[in-house]
Structures are given as structure tokens and as C-alpha cells.
């Protein structure tokens, strides 16, 4: 892709650079969906899903943009095989019965530097609304001439609201696994012809 093509992949709306309107395919090889939970109320344990796919339908009016994401739950990894197996079991994600998580946007607030993406997250067969704080980092060209847009998003959810209620009470008070889970997302998406 030449600089002219890269320029065609961006536009200015309200004095702000944005990706061009059109369909942007999420690149699974360059996208990261990570989560952070507390273990024993103190230690942060990080995990990620390694198979994330979907599309960002950037609308002419940025407020009409739609996001659809699918996550293969069986790809959860935390760096500990026993913990990963437990997360895949019926105690948590129950991947045999619920192999896919989905996120479908329902709206976006476009005021300010960080935008708020609203959507429905389905985990373990339960759907709840979740809002993500989203930042757009620009469009670049990869070595093969493809326009790639970069985004970051963060959010938080209560895992028990999705039926992920397994836990163990600690003698010292509190529980083994936190209810609150933080999400950290990095997305690279390619403009489709």
C-alpha cells in the first residue's frame, strides 16, 4: 500500500482523525484479549484468549459504528496448565457446552479522547451489557501494503453475573478468586476491499 492508499484509509470527522468508513476485519494474529483477576484477594493473575475474530463496521457517522467479536473460549491460557483446565471445566467456562463468547455492540459515545463502546457480552450462555473505554491509535501500513487500524479497550465485569460463581472462602476472610475481572484489549484490524 502506498502512502496515498494509507491516506485513503483515514478521514477527519469533527477535527479528529478516524479510520475510513467500511468493514475492518479483526486480525487474530495481532489482537489480544486479556483479563486480570485477583487470586487470594492480593495477587493479580493474567489470562488471555488466543483466538479472537470479528469485524468493526465503521460507519460514516462514527456513532453508528458496529462491532462484532467472537472468542473461542477453549483457547484460554494463563500460563498454568492445571488452572487453564479448571477454567475450561464446568466450574467456570464449561467450554463443552459454551464454546464461544460473543460481544455485539449496541452503541458508542464519541465525545472525548476515550470513547465508550456499549454492547452485549455473552459468556457461559448469559448475556449482560458491558461498556468498554476505547482509544483509536491510528492507521498504519503493513509490509504487504495493507491498511491496519489499531485500537485499545479496557473494561470491567462481575464474573458472577455471567454464572461463573465457583469460589472458595479463605480462612483469613475473602475468597480465592475475585468477582471483578478487568479486561485489557488490543485490536489490529484490516480494511477490507
Key structural traits:
two-stranded antiparallel sheet; elongated; eight-stranded antiparallel beta barrel; 193 residues; single chain; 53% strand; 2 helices
Average pLDDT, to the nearest integer? Answer: 89
Count every helix, treating DSSP H or I runs of 4 or more residues as helices. 2
What is Rg? Answer: 18 Å
Q: Within the largest sheet, what's the order of strands?
A: 3-6-7-9-10-11-12-13
Number of domains: 1
- Structural class comes to mainly beta
Helix content: under 10%
- Tell me the number of strands: 13
Could you characterize what this model shows?
The chain starts with a helix and ends with a strand. It has helices at 3-8, 81-88; strands spanning 10-13, 16-19, 22-26, 32-39, 43-49, 52-58, 66-72, 76-77, 100-109, 115-123, 126-141, 147-158, 180-191. It is built from two helices and 13 strands; from the N terminus they run H-E-E-E-E-E-E-E-E-H-E-E-E-E-E. The chain is 7% helix and 53% strand. The mean pLDDT is 89. The chain has a single domain (3-191), classed as Lipid/polyisoprenoid-binding, YceI-like (Lipocalin, Beta Barrel). The radius of gyration is 18 Å and the shape is elongated. A hairpin with a 7-residue loop joins strand 6 and strand 7 (66-72). It is mainly beta and 193 residues long. The strands form two sheets. An eight-stranded antiparallel beta barrel has the order 3-6-7-9-10-11-12-13. A two-stranded antiparallel sheet has the order 1-2.
Amino acid at each position: 500500500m502506498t502512502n496515498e492508499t494509507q491516506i485513503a484509509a483515514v478521514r477527519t470527522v469533527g477535527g479528529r482523525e478516524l479510520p475510513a468508513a467500511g468493514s475492518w476485519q479483526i486480525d487474530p494474529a495481532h489482537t489480544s484479549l486479556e483479563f486480570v483477576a485477583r487470586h487470594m484477594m492480593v495477587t493479580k493473575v493474567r489470562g488471555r484468549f488466543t483466538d479472537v475474530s470479528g469485524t468493526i463496521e465503521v460507519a460514516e457517522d462514527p456513532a453508528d459504528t458496529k462491532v462484532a467479536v467472537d472468542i473461542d473460549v477453549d483457547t484460554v491460557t494463563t500460563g498454568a496448565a492445571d488452572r487453564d483446565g479448571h477454567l475450561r471445566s464446568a466450574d467456570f467456562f464449561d467450554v463443552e457446552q459454551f464454546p464461544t463468547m460473543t460481544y455485539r455492540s449496541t452503541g458508542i459515545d464519541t465525545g472525548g479522547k476515550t470513547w465508550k463502546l456499549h454492547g452485549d457480552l455473552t459468556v457461559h450462555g448469559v448475556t449482560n451489557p458491558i461498556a468498554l473505554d476505547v482509544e483509536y491509535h491510528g492507521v498504519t501500513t503493513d509490509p504487504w501494503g495493507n491498511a491496519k487500524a489499531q485500537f485499545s479497550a479496557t473494561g470491567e465485569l462481575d464474573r458472577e453475573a455471567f454464572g461463573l460463581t465457583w469460589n472458595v472462602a479463605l480462612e483469613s476472610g475473602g475468597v480465592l478468586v475475585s468477582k471483578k475481572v478487568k479486561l485489557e484489549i488490543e485490536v489490529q484490524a484490516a480494511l477490507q476491499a
